[in-house]
Amino acid sequence: MSKKSLPATQKQGKARLGDQIRSIADRLKQETDVQIKTTSRILGAAAQIAENHDRLINEVVDMVESDLNAEKQVSQKHIYTVDILKQEFKTLRDAKAYFNLKVSSWESLINKLNAPSNQTSIIQHKNQLNYGLTDKNMIVSEDNFNNIEKLTVILEPDVAEMFPNSEAVNEALRFLIRVTSKNSF
Question: Fewer CB atoms < 10 Å away: N or C end of the chain?
Fold first, then answer.
């Protein structure tokens, strides 16, 4: 009698062991499916991040190229002739003083003004004269804050090294405005 019951017990043990193995296999398959789905989502998110990064880089490159083209156009617009300068200034002395250049004739002044190396400094000099900025450490009264056109900001020394004049500050702020407004969510 004990011989007959032993095989039945072994069959039940094998059946339980088989069920446990199938259960473990099913759980592993489910976990693998979850891992595959999670990995797929992570890869999708990474691809989206890369696409957004590339788009942002392209936008920044486009803005920088646009700024460089605009700067090139501005510098090309400042071509001086003797007639233009004579209309603007009464004497050669006045013109030399305005541009802070040492020359002996109208022609030599034109040559210096139209030289590519002088274009940027002349434009900056004119803008500084137009804005009337004479001192980086100028103290501003509070009533100037009511008129935004005449707003003066005092730059810390480390910032002033990077932005030597109001044109550089305005250019950097306009660039920042464009980047943030294009990429605001």
Answer: C
